[in-house]
Design brief:
GO cellular component, one term (chains A, B): cytosol
Helix content of chain A: 25-40%
CATH class of chain A: Alpha Beta
CATH architecture of chain A: 3-Layer(aba) Sandwich
Largest sheet of chain A: 9 strands, mixed
Oligomer: homodimer
CATH superfamily of chain A: Ribokinase
Radius of gyration of chain A: 17 Å
Number of domains of chain A: 1
EC number (chains A, B): 2.7.1.-
Strand content of chain A: 15-25%
Largest interface: A-B, 31 and 31 residues
InterPro entries (chains A, B): Carboh/pur_kinase_PfkB_CS, PfkB_dom, Ribokinase-like
Keywords (chains A, B): Kinase, Transferase
Protein name (chains A, B): Putative sugar kinase YdjH
Shape of chain A: globular
Chain lengths: 300, 300
């Protein structure tokens, strides 16, 4: 069943303890779409500027991403973000943010996107996420991501969105901030009282768990031995997760559990390279191979 | 099959953000034995002083711990340790250490302990651990714990011990210190080149994994919603792990994987109270019930 993703495309400048990239392809919807593409052709909604490179359009199109919803804003400039990671990977400093075309981003879904059944609202202002979601006629499974900034400055919009979505994806820090609960299990339980039927809580290198409607499933991360750049890992997790659900055509507890493994696999490829240098090359055969490895590691 | 544990007994003074205990029953071998007792009567080897309380002997005996190897040093004083946890639980400050009888601890195994098949060398100086292990005639599965202090000041003794044991249990910080590898998978791989056939790497609230001889199995922690005191969690993990193996009578990959769940269950009860206030009350029925809960959470 079709899968639409609404979110950002960016040019990122990323610095790690070992290497760096300037103006590398990034953005929440971009990472999601590249990660989901081996499962199903994702329908991408986002905005870029005049400076958007044709080669990036080609990369996404070749990957199987549907770009009918990619708006090129005349006279605008693509969103830019800069970040630097401490050697331990756990601390990320934002070195700059240029919103550019995101300042006025108003998602418009092409007519043929509106009957999508699976919807992912990648990280963006919750009012923008709501605006995107409202254009999908009858979604059967809608999931949103968010970030600390929106929990801080757009909490009312986020709370309204939480009434409309089926699932919310958060990392540990965001979950604590949203709920005021230090303990992640209690934090997840509290999120479930705020609207969503499911919550997926990501803990970076320590894995992730899903809770909701009688389901509680926890999974370690895939044991990557060399992290190159963690940027986009959460969006890639979501891409693998939603891509698998959309391909399965349902969100049964069995599907959601397996989708957690698929998300974990996608995130593990993402962190093995800057931008989509690694995951952008990965085929369904690669995904299947690592899925089987992960199954070995977590199966009794 | 019989299980012997060699290690410390202590009186701990522990302070958390919420509460405190003075001179509470503690020590690596004590926590291990209390955790393992529902599976099999552990044979305990350790030393205490004149100040050892009869009520603590009674508690351990009632729990089913064999105390023939508990040496009461005349004129000696029981090992004492003080610690304080930061509100996030991740940082522990040692407030004081009084070695007392441990300064001259020379483990002597009663004759009927020497044919034990399962051996756990709880945290102690690696030369003391070696001395204990050498008295077991033909162990089929010996596992040791250690700590940063010994990696730092007794590395040669620890390296010698690693040639003699089947498995080593470490936490993430210890693994990094022992191997110089930041990445925990690479750290575990390196430990396996240093002697042990298996390494168990504990990540506190983030779970644990075991690697070795074609086995790689990873598990999240049990989702405890209220931590009271993490002291002894690692020793309790080891107690549940080794207790289950000893009861099963083997260390096949299937047994080791299930033992990881049993260790996780034991650790989860340990942290729910100061000292052994919670885990000391837990029966095999409690263990089984939580084991089944954990199975639900990790099974696809």
């Amino acid at each position: 069943m079709s899968l639409v993703v609404i979110g950002t495309l960016a040019y990122d400048s990323v610095e790690t303890a070992h290497d760096r990239r300037e103006n590398a392809l990034g953005g929440s919807a971009m990472y999601f779409a590249v990660a989901a593409a081996p499962y199903i052709s994702p329908l991408l909604v986002g905005a870029v500027g005049d400076d958007w490179r044709d080669e990036d359009t080609e990369l996404l199109a070749k990957r199987g991403v549907d770009l009918a919803g990619l708006e090129k804003v005349a006279g605008g400039k693509t969103f830019r973000w800069g970040g630097r990671y401490e050697p331990d990977w756990n601390t990320r400093h934002t070195t700059f943010t240029e919103l550019n075309v995101l300042e006025t981003f108003d998602p418009k879904l092409p007519a043929n996107y509106r009957d999508a059944k699976f919807v992912f609202l990648a990280n963006a202002h919750p009012a923008v996420q709501m605006q995107g979601l409202s254009q999908v006629e009858a979604p059967i499974f809608s999931v949103a991501d968010t970030m600390n900034l929106w929990i801080d400055i757009a909490r009312t919009d986020l709370e309204a969105l939480m009434q409309k979505i089926d699932g919310l994806i958060l990392n540990d820090e965001e979950a604590r901030m949203l709920t005021g609960e230090d303990n992640l299990i209690r934090a997840a339980q509290k999120v479930l009282t705020m609207g969503p039927k499911f919550v997926i809580l990501k803990k970076g290198e320590h894995g992730a768990f899903i809770m909701g409607e009688g389901l509680h499933f926890s999974l370690p991360a895939y044991p990557v031995t060399e992290v190159i750049d963690p940027t986009g890992a959460g969006d890639s997790f979501a891409g693998g997760f939603m891509g698998y659900c959309a391909k399965a055509g349902n969100h049964s507890p069995e599907t959601l559990k397996k989708a957690m493994l698929h998300g974990t696999v996608a995130a593990s490829y993402c962190v093995q390279g800057f931008s989509v240098e690694d995951i952008g090359q990965r085929t369904m055969a690669d995904y299947d191979s690592r899925y089987n490895d992960l199954m070995q590691i977590v199966s009794l």
